[in-house]
Design a protein that fits this description.
Blueprint (H helix, E strand, L loop, with lengths): L1 H12 L14 E10 L2 E9 L4 H8 L4 E11 L7 E15 L4 E6 L2 E5 L2 H8 L1 E7 L10 E9 L6 H9 L10 E5 L3
Antiparallel strand pairs: 1-2, 2-7, 3-4, 3-8, 4-5, 5-6, 8-9
Length: about 180
């Protein structure tokens, strides 16, 4: 009887077949920093854990992957409501060109050529963005940047877009993260 109870206890307390494998860490924004001066805020940050192995394989086969980034700049007040002084929506995409065997990074009106998948993934996860600011910027006051990123599913090809709708492997969206901006 004791052996049976010990076996049942071990069975109930042991992790199931899915419990042996840890879930991949969720995507997140990190290392937000920058400066705000005049009519512009320069914001730099990193996008971590954004590419699953399935996404990397799709990228290598020529599927274009795009991220939509939303950046807000706020004037931080003590014990009061913060005021938004700038907002910018930004899209950055990467695609493997099979004929020339290079990765093409596109953002704004700029195209960059990257030689391999490692350089492409590194460049797709590092951002430096200029955000237009309206209103007066006060020197020495507190400002912060709020950043959020998500995979742009609309830019995917039609067969993949239908599959992605039902797959959590392509569910890339970060929580809003914030970081301090220096106002020299």
């Amino acid at each position: 009887m004791r052996v049976l109870m010990a076996f049942l206890t071990m069975f109930l307390l042991s992790p199931g077949p899915g419990g042996a494998f840890a879930a991949p860490p969720p995507p997140k924004i990190s290392d937000i920093r920058g400066t705000i001066q005049g009519k512009e805020a320069k914001v730099a940050f990193r996008l971590e854990n954004a590419f699953t192995p399935e996404m990397v394989e799709a990228l290598k086969s020529g599927i274009e992957i795009s991220f939509r980034i939303t950046i807000e700049v706020e004037r931080v007040y003590r014990n009061w409501f913060n005021k938004t002084v700038g907002e910018f929506r930004y899209t950055q995409s990467i695609r493997y060109d099979v004929l020339s065997r290079v990765y093409r990074l596109h953002y704004g009106a700029v195209d960059e050529i990257l030689p391999d998948v490692h350089a492409a993934l590194d460049r797709m996860t590092r951002y430096e963005v200029a955000v237009p600011v309206f209103g007066e910027v006060s020197r020495g006051k507190n400002y912060r940047a709020l950043v959020r990123a998500r995979l742009d599913r609309v830019g995917l090809s039609e067969p993949l877009r239908s599959i992605v709708f039902f797959s959590s492997l392509w569910d890339v969206e970060t929580d809003q993260a914030h970081g301090r901006l220096a106002a020299p």
